[in-house]
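During the no-cost extension, the postdoctoral fellow (Dr. R.K.) reprocessed legacy sequence entries with the updated structure-token encoder. One reprocessed record is reproduced below for audit purposes.
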Amino acid sequence: MQSTDDKVIAKIKKAKGGALFFTEYFLAFGTSKTIAKALERLVKKQEITRVARGIYARLQTHPELGTLYPSTEAIAQAIAKRDKARIIPTGSMALNALGLSTQVPMNVVYLTDGAARKITIGKRKIVFKKTAPKSLATIGKISGLVIQAAKEIGKDKLYEHEIEIIIKQLKKEEPYRLEHDIKLAPEWIRIIMRQAQTTINNE
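Re-encoded structure tokens follow.
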């Protein structure tokens, strides 16, 4: 008869390398206390790694880079998927993702319609801030980021070269998504988004 540890590791090994797992994924094999103990033992055996409280991963190894840890974004997306919640990066993460800042933030903040919470990953933190559904209604990954990044910089504080970067990024957005998201942006951000739209239409 297979032990709980064997069942847990068998399920983990079926997933892609680098995949993330939550304690509740294994509840078919026992109580949450039994599963937590099994995962603890597998961490001690170095079969899996504890990424954060209740979050585990079977890490991949790269021949040159060594052990590959999951990115903050991958962890945030996995939590959102588990919670069936929508999330959108804000602040310095949105700036970094668009190339408006080279600073990689230690603490990242996501707006969510799920539960507000803080996840500690080593020295980093992921903060989920509860927000109104309207703030999460954007459907374009790039246009959604642009709205958050522009809000972070502030009205009348965008330099010409930053507007150029934003327009260049928005040109990669699918036109129907951009069209949809323009309606959700504050008027001063809409002006920049419309500039991108005009550029796309004229090309």
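The chain has two domains: 4-66, 72-202. DSSP finds eight helices and nine strands in the chain. The remaining legacy entries will be reprocessed before the final report is submitted.
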